[in-house]
Amino acid sequence: MLKQFITSALFAVGLSASAQGVYQFKDPGFENWKSTNEPGNGWNSFESAENNGIGSLFNTGKNASPKPTQETAAPHSGSKSLKIYSNTPFVGKKANGNITTGVIMMGSPNPVSDYNGERKNHNKTMRSKDGGYMLFDGTPDKISFYAKFKSGGSQNGSGRFILHGDVDYRDPDKQSNGEYFPDMKENLIGEATILVPATTDWTYFESDFTYYQSKPTKQYLLASLTTNPNPGESSGDDLYVDDIQFIYYHGLSSLSYNNVKLAGFSEDKLNYDLSTEEYDETKVAYEIHGRGASAEKVYNKKTGVLTINVKGNDYAANESSITTYTIQFKHEIAKETVYKNSLLVDAHDLGGIQFTPSSPISVLHYESNNCYDLLLKDFSFGGMSVGDILVEELTPSTSVDGTLTLTAKDKSTSVTLYGEPTMLPITVDAQISKAGNMTATITIDLGEGMTVDVTYAPQLTISPSTSLEVSNATGLTNVVMNRTFAAGWNTYCMPFDYNLSSLDAEAKAQEFVSSNGSSLTFNEVADGVLKANVPYLVYFPTETTVGTTEAPRYFVTNVASYQPTSVEHSGFTFVGNYEASKSMQGLYGVASEGDVQKIMLGTAGSTLPATCAYFTTKNLNANGLRICFDGGEVTGINQVNGAQAQSAGAVYNLQGIKVSNRGTNNLPAGLYIMQGKKVIVK
After folding, report:
1. In this structure, how many other beta carbons lie within 10 angstroms of the beta carbon of residue 538?
2. Do residues 194 and 66 touch, judged by C-beta distance below 8 A?
3. CATH 3.40.640.10 fits 35-247, yes or no
4. Is the dihedral of CA 523, 524, 529, 532 positive or negative?
5. Which of 544, 535, 644 is nearest to 598 (CA)?
6. Which residue from 148, 121, 127, 344 is spatially nearest to 243, judged by alpha carbons?
7. Rg (the chain; Cα; Å)
8. Helix or strand holding residue 115 (H, E)
9. Dihedral angle sign, alpha carbons of residues 636, 637, 638, 644
């Protein structure tokens, strides 16, 4: 069966000039009229007829000639249809019902004698008159409409459709001797005629176009609907017409490979299996069914599928005018490697941040052509399910250390948004190490400045109660951070660069810059950017919690290493700590005594959480050490108190008499016993 694809979408395609071209009537169902007796939308009646030599009788004849009517009773579709009829405007003279896309020329009150003579009565493309012509871009295969006809003497109602070149074409186009009028034959491109016999019910009619030459640069349509093919031969005829459509085929009439017709071929069969054959473009042959239709071949070397898209001549104005055939050839099965990392989706405009602790991404590798695809399965963001995202034909490159990089820039990819398939540009930058670990960034461009940023990387959880393992993989990392900072001064050390202001706008940071043996000097980090693995003193005006179990704090960053940095000046060292519950015995840290913060020496039972920092010193008499910020004394941290941290043990003199339960504070200079050891107070 021939592919005709007459769809309701065609009814919406206008016959007004546009960038898409003109392929259908603007109002094929005659639903909207220009005036009572004038259909408009490209159609003209006796209402707009021109005088072709009838003289003073013109106005009388024009007014008396049968005008079309818009019928509302039982149309074929919609709410209205067209009716044309014949009558007797002059005594004994009969006039056909007639509408045309050109202009009705009235030249004789006697159509019958005119028919046998000069034929002054005719329809004509009048290029000089506004609305007197119809430009047409299509090369249709058929014309069709629904009609019913009541005869008052005519054998048939008639519809004639003439495609012609850049001349004022006429219908009838032949003289009484059968010869064409001048300029007619050489400008006739194609034509189709439908004869409508008597019928009381709506009946479908169609006719093939016959073509005589190729479509010119400028083409016109001269269409005529009449109650009688021969002017003036009957009256009392009624012709009803509805739903006029031009039909454009888009199919294949033959398809073969290596000179052999494909098994089971028919125009309506769309899929074929040649999976035992190697694809060779030169061996594919086909014939297109459709005047003016075109076909294009697309071969997917990964899947082995040849796609042949056949587009009808009207495809520019009707995207449904296409038929797709596929042929499966022998193909390589891709090697699929599945990677599992954490997935961080940042789409603030569409639902905020979404974190998936473990999510698979597949890389499909076609070894024969070194082609890579990236498949993100069951993707969603902001509560919206997208499904599988396949980004095809990424660009591969391999570094000297064996890292495979796969990239794609604004690759047009099909995604599903709000239940509808949508093509969006997607950017991919993925690295696969020689050991087989993957990190990737994927950006989905939604337009209007909105993006969905996807980070696919190892998950790093940073918590004071969890040690950061040096053995953890480095590189692009999805970081989940949880920590509570005390009001006042805290030590701080992180394995990646970070702007402190994003935690608290009023937070301040100080870095250790020098020491003179009796004081430690810190300077403010002016830009607020804390360097990876470097220890700092940070100040928060109030207690601040960053991240909770219910609402974790996410970061996306490149973690270069997990090795804290030691900062040393004049025998004093500031050291970052990534160990949970690190023993502080013999080490100095920031602690609170009542409402006063001090740098105090730890005891055997004291510990330091991860992501904090501590001090060490070679100065055995650290008591009285001052902390200075920006050249001045610190506010909020008192002097170092080396003995205070030992207050848990009693202090005895050399005679064994207990002299203090609070360590060596405020004791006079001398030698004492504390925790079984001699202690000198200077």
Report:
1. 22
2. no
3. no
4. positive
5. 644
6. 148
7. 45
8. helix 111-115
9. positive
